[in-house]
Specification:
Blueprint lengths: L3 H21 L8 H21 L2 H24 L1
Helix pairs in contact: 1-2, 2-3
């Protein structure tokens, strides 16, 4: 049986990779809401995952990643 910690990490990773691939194939831009929300939710889930694993470097990385995504959502949301 797969535990909840693994599922949280897997879902967070999947969301970030989906955003990345969509950006690489030019389906979304880095300023698009979909891209930003996928990164925001994915990295927030990875913060939870990092906390559960007690991984400080991974936690810091994803706090910054989430912060950048939130900033993008707020900044680009005002421009529209």
């Amino acid at each position: 049986m797969v535990d909840i910690t693994f599922n949280i990490g897997l879902l967070g990773m999947a969301l970030i990779l989906i955003a990345f691939v969509l950006n690489v194939i030019k389906h979304v831009k880095a300023t698009d809401r979909l891209y930003l929300w996928l990164n925001c939710v994915g990295s927030a889930l990875l913060i939870i995952y990092a906390v559960l694993l007690s991984s400080i470097p991974f936690m810091i990385l994803n706090i910054v990643w989430t912060g950048a995504a939130v900033w993008g959502i707020l900044y680009h949301g005002k421009k529209r």
